[in-house]
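Hi V.,

Quick status before I head out on leave. The structure for the redesign project is tokenized and pasted below; the design run finished overnight.
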């Protein structure tokens, strides 16, 4: 819980700073195509995930115009499925993301960005199998992408990847089996600036 409070305070601080001399704030929502990590037995890969669509919704602030910093606070629902070797399960995860993106605008309407993405896992669920405690509720990755703005409306496409795996153990008759929950995802978002 203290990680959620920390992320919220960090985001509010960035938004407050942006409002004092920056270019605004807004909302964003969209879809994400996600692959979580492999399922492994004693660190030997057994199943790779099949990606599925999920969604995200959140708020953002922006400081600067041509060169800018853009912190976001986003709720994300991700989905993957695992099948093979007698195993057919759907995986779902809910998380809070705090990407802090550094970007540059060019040719008037286009922009590119990169930055760290902090993740706090709220819930994990594997269809019919009980999961243990996740290794780290709080992890760090990065996002890179670009987009286009038409007045107050923006569209962007980004890629997210974690710096390290984040395992959760499967409980029951599957001893020694672990699932890497840190997602790799393509994120398509639509934003509106107030």
């Amino acid at each position: 819980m203290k990680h959620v409070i920390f992320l919220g305070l960090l985001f509010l601080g960035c938004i407050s700073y942006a409002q004092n001399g920056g270019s605004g704030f807004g909302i964003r929502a969209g879809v994400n195509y996600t692959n979580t990590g492999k399922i492994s037995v004693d660190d030997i890969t057994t199943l790779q995930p099949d990606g599925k669509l999920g969604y995200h919704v959140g708020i953002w602030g922006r400081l600067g115009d041509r060169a800018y910093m853009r912190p976001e606070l986003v709720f994300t629902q991700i989905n993957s499925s695992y099948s093979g070797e007698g195993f057919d399960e759907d995986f779902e995860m809910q998380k809070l993301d705090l990407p802090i993106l550094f970007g540059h605008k060019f040719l008037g309407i286009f922009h590119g960005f990169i930055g760290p993405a902090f993740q706090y896992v709220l819930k994990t669920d594997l269809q019919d199998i009980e999961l243990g405690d996740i290794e780290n509720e709080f992890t760090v990755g990065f996002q890179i992408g670009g987009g286009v703005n038409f007045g107050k409306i923006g569209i962007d496409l980004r890629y997210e990847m974690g710096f390290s795996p984040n395992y959760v153990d499967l409980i029951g008759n599957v001893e020694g089996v672990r699932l890497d929950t840190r997602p790799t995802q393509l994120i398509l978002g639509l934003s509106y600036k107030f």
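Above is the designed sequence. The first helix runs from residue 2 to 21.

G. will cover questions while I'm gone.

Best,
W.
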